[in-house]
Structures are given as C-alpha cells and as structure tokens.
Design a protein that fits this description.
InterPro entries: Glyas_Bleomycin-R_OHBP_Dase, Glyas_Fos-R_dOase_dom, VOC_core. With 115 residues, the protein is of the alpha+beta class. The chain has 2 helices and 6 strands, in the order αβββαβββ. The chain has a single domain, classed as 2,3-Dihydroxybiphenyl 1,2-Dioxygenase, domain 1, CATH 3.10.180.
C-alpha cells in the first residue's frame, strides 16, 4: 500500500537549498525536469510527539557522531544555529540552510527503527 515517504522543504531560495543537499550533504538525486531535483533521503523514522500547541512537523537528520559531523560540515561552510544539547534521547543541534531555514541534526541515543 505505502511505498515510500516524500518530504517537502519550503524555502525562500530553493536553488540554494537544492545545491546544499546535492553539494554539501552529497545526497544522490534525480532531475524531475527543468532542474527540479528530487533527493534520495537516508533511511528514516517517524515519531509522533504530543503537543499542547498547534500541530507541526520537523525534519531532523540523524548521524552516528554529532561532534564529528559538525566538524565535517563546518569545514564545508555550514553554519550551526545552536550548541549541542544533550537530551535523554540524543544529542541535538540545528544547522542553517542557505535559503534561511533551519534543520535539526542529532545523534540518537535510543534504538533506531530504521536499522
């Protein structure tokens, strides 16, 4: 029935964010026509968290070693917008996308569902 998930990032500079995903993160992609790149995402999980406010959605990339990944991405010019926060479930930070948005990056300390 369900064959995959399609994540959409809305951006004020879609071309810059596509270049970031392609050139900095190195995500494989296809051109759906006219330079409209669709990227292969790493294995993923879906978690549902309770909220007292309006429902929202987030995209966080996962890594095995957040400190090493931050160093590698900083060498490529990536700006991080928050220090690493140690949470019960993982080590979390945020990075700035070229289009102005932010994306989470974390090292899970919980069992992962995608392995």
């Amino acid at each position: 029935m369900i064959t995959g998930a399609h994540t959409v990032l809305y951006s004020s500079d879609a071309d810059a964010d596509r270049a970031f995903l392609r050139d900095v993160l190195g995500f494989p992609h296809v051109d759906a026509g006219g330079g409209w790149l669709i990227f292969t995402a790493p294995p993923s999980e879906i978690a549902v968290h309770p909220t007292e406010g309006a429902p929202k959605h987030e995209l966080m990339l996962m890594c095995d070693d957040v400190d090493r990944t931050i160093a590698e991405l900083k060498d490529k010019g990536v700006e991080f917008t928050s220090p690493v926060q140690d949470q019960r479930w993982g080590r979390l930070t945020s990075l700035r996308l070229p289009g102005g948005g932010e994306m989470g990056l974390y090292e899970p300390l919980h069992p992962t569902a995608h392995s």
